[in-house]
Amino acid sequence: MVSATVRRQGRQWWGLAGFVAAVVAIALVGSLAVTGSSDRYGSLVKPPWAPPGWLFGPVWSVLYLMIAVSGWLVWRRIGFGLPLWVYAAQLVLNALWTPLFFGAGSFELAGADIVALLVLITVNIGLFRRISGAAALLLVPYWVWVAFATALTFALWRANA
User: Fold this and answer.
1) Among 24, 41, 82, 156, which is least packed by CB within 10 angstroms?
2) Per-residue DSSP letter, 49
3) Which residue ranges form the domains of the chain, and what is each CATH number?
C-alpha cells in the first residue's frame, strides 16, 4: 500500500510537470505564432548593445525553467490563488510580445505589452516574496531580462520606425 506522503510527493512532481508544460506552451505560442522572427531580428537596425539573435533561445530556455519552478513553489504552498493569477497574466503578456513585434510588426503594441509585462513581473515578485523567498528570487533574472528587452524594444522601435 502506498503511503499518503508518497502520493502527495507524486502529486507535487506532477504539479511541477504541469508548470513546466504551461511555460513550454507559452513559449511555443510566442515562437510558433510567427515564422521568420530570427531573420526579421537580423534585418533590423540595432543598437550596438543588442545581443546576437542566437542568444535569445538559450536565455529564454533557462528563464522559462526558472519561471516554472517559481510558480510551482508557490502552488505547493498556497494552491492557485491571486499570486498565480498574476503569474498566469504575465505569461500571457509574455506570449503576446513576439506575435505583436514580429508578426504584426507593431512596435507600439509590443512596447505597451512589454511595459505591462514588466509591471506584472514586479507585482508577481512582490506577491511571491510573501509566500516563498526562493520563488521570488527565481523571477529576478526574468525581470532583469525583460527590463533589458524593454529597453531593446524601444531602441528597435526608434531605429526602425
Assistant:
1) 82
2) T
3) 4-160 (1.20.1260.100)
